[in-house]
């Protein structure tokens, strides 16, 4: 381009940072504005006296997506990040005291299945994985490599709906393969990666179990934040992007159908030819943009994911009984999810996650000590007054009691220092609407074409774009990374520029030409059925205009 267009990106999370690197590589002048003093957003680090904690994500899944993101920048991720593979994917702790380890080793999984599921258990497990592979191979490219800008983008993939089991739930589908409650729990809790209940999440999300079993779970040496740091380094040093910290954005400036830049909390105005918002989408529409009916009716009616009470414990000694990733499952499995998602409460018997980064990366803690992270899911904030200090005490007590009863651990005696993030923290620190840690939910009517689009979903502004958990394609670090490609490509096209091609991209199957009259009719029938649940679920008219 003759004169570099200026793109302002709000937020230096993984989505904003990756988009900055991509757009600056395309020749744009990019300025990233971050409210905090650190990068990464939820994908950031907490430190205390030699201990290091990943503040948010800890599971490095779908490694090919990370590889592709760096490849698109003409880099190799292995030249920037040292990835450590977990020997066990998880250690699962059941209410009766039984423990199993899930891994990518089929011989070890055979032993687990024989013991828990009995005769034919391994065969049922392999059939479950075979179906999960279909979900992964066919569903992932459709979901994360396609930008559903018009209804026809949805129509072309309607033939796959049946094979992807979008109308079934994760737990029910798993129950058709596994006879025991233990294995049903073991292969359904993963929906919590998306902040959803396995009793509500579409069955297609068994693709998560597939990528775990086949590709494994990894950990970046030095912490998950290493990924964001390296992307920022590439964006700045290789492509000339600018990052500004301690600069909260007060509003996105608008004029007619265009945004003109941002105003910072201190009053400074930064002009822009386009704005990409990596701040929480729901927060941005409510707080940074002028109000409109789409925000107050359609967006406000959408379901959010859960929040969490997260403990970051500096331990005075190592805890050999804990692996890198540990899941403690509740006896009242379904009831615990109902309490989170229906009552927006702390479960009376929570299932929770314990992560020990120092087990795989000794640099996370001083010698002979462990860093321990505990994540207890809880409902997001609502209108009712809540005593979160009391809930934090209750959650801590529940966790320590379970660890004592199941493992005989007296962790309370070994905690040297504690940091806590609760829904208030997530909201205040990262502007997460109602403290929802993973943004908008991924139920059927909030994905693909139904999810807020990467270009202003309200239809008011021609040069306002979004990237992050609550926009398409969705939540989770690899998904947001993939979304940064969709968003940056759309920005390029908005300025008449041809986006750079993907590196090593997969090509999703298209079984049916998108414009056959029969499929158009079928699409309208299906969409009419889905949207009949509530008129508020209909996207704005702007989303059905043909892209040019």
Which range does the strand content fall in?
Answer: 15-25%
What's the total helix number? 17
Strand order of the largest sheet: 7-6-15-16-17-14-18
Euclidean distance between termini CA atoms: 20 Å
Based on secondary structure, the structural category is alpha/beta
Helix content: 25-40%
Shape: globular
Characterise the protein shown here.
With 548 residues, this protein is α/β, with parallel strands linked by helices. The protein is globular. The protein has helices spanning 14-25, 63-71, 106-116, 121-145, 151-155, 161-164, 170-175, 181-186, 207-215, 225-238, 281-288, 293-299, 333-341, 388-407, 423-430, 477-494, 517-531, and strands at 6-10, 29-33, 45-48, 51-54, 83-85, 90-93, 99-102, 218-220, 242-244, 249-255, 258-264, 269-271, 274-277, 307-315, 325-328, 352-355, 371-378, 415-421, 464-466. Helix content is 34%, strand content 17%. A hairpin with a 2-residue loop joins strand 3 and strand 4 (51-54). The strands form five sheets. Strands 7-6-15-16-17-14-18 form a seven-stranded mixed sheet. Strands 9-2-1-13-19 form a five-stranded parallel sheet, with helices on one face. Pathway: Carotenoid biosynthesis. This is Phytoene desaturase.
